[in-house]
Write a structure and sequence with these properties.
Mean pLDDT: 93
Oligomer: single chain
Largest sheet: 8 strands, mixed
Strand content: 15-25%
């Protein structure tokens, strides 16, 4: 099915600055996912593009956006320090409102990659994602503490389902430690580990797989999980 691409700018927080966003929506979309970028992979980074395209092939629309610090960048040599945490949170909250307008009757999910997996789950813990059905932290970086001294502490305040999609060889997370954290949470949580993949879902050259294969796996897992969450929500509502 054809995919519609819409680009717009919105205020990161009240009083400017403006940041860019892109809505990638297949005509037969079954859900919309806010897909928030990592600290060094702005919304048009090849990995972000590839994951969004793979999700669209699975009928999942995505809304990507930049933060103020990532609005002006030049790949492949772009390097910049993230905005302060309050700016990141305000921008993500503004993006939530923008994406919610596009969602209309589509089930709305919120996801973030790496740095932004901390941002979106922190917003969820603060009760600022009321329209979201569930959350998808991509490569949640437990060892990365530039924004949060305790990166997993806030997760216990989230009540909605969460899907963690990790790389089995990601040096920013120890899978066994993440499993322990998730098992202690009250929210329904699912952990999918892409075997051999690093933080960018790259896989070893001798694995007979490629980064594209890993990204296709990620998109398929997210799509199937979204189906299950929507079905479960419908059962609870008596549909």
């Amino acid at each position: 099915m054809p995919t519609e691409m819409n680009e717009l700018q919105f205020e990161a927080y009240e009083g400017d600055p403006k940041v860019s966003s892109v809505l990638e929506c297949p005509q037969d979309a079954k859900a919309l996912l806010l897909f928030d970028h990592g600290s060094h992979s702005p919304m048009r980074h090849p990995l972000m593009n590839n994951i969004a395209e793979a999700l669209a092939n699975n009928r999942v629309a995505t809304f990507r956006f930049n933060y103020p610090y990532s609005e002006s960048y030049h790949l492949p040599d772009w390097e910049a320090s993230p905005d302060p945490l309050p700016v990141l949170l305000d921008t993500a909250e503004s993006a939530l409102k923008q994406a919610g307008e596009f969602a209309r009757d589509l089930p709305f999910f919120v996801g973030g990659r790496s740095m932004s997996s901390q941002i979106v789950t922190l917003l969820a813990a603060q009760g600022k994602t009321k329209n979201a059905m569930a959350f998808v932290p991509f490569v949640f970086p437990m060892k990365w503490r530039e924004l949060l001294k305790e990166p997993t502490e806030h997760l216990r305040h989230i009540k909605n389902p969460m899907l963690f999609v990790q790389g089995g060889a990601d040096d920013l997370t120890v899978i066994t430690e993440l499993q322990q954290v998730l098992s202690s949470l009250s929210a329904p949580t699912t952990l999918h580990v892409v075997e051999g993949a690093d933080h960018q879902y790259n896989v070893p050259v001798d694995s007979n797989r490629t980064n594209k294969d890993a990204v296709i796996e990620v998109a398929s897992v997210v799509s199937d999980w979204i189906d299950a969450v929507i079905k479960d929500e419908g059962n609870r509502a008596g549909y």
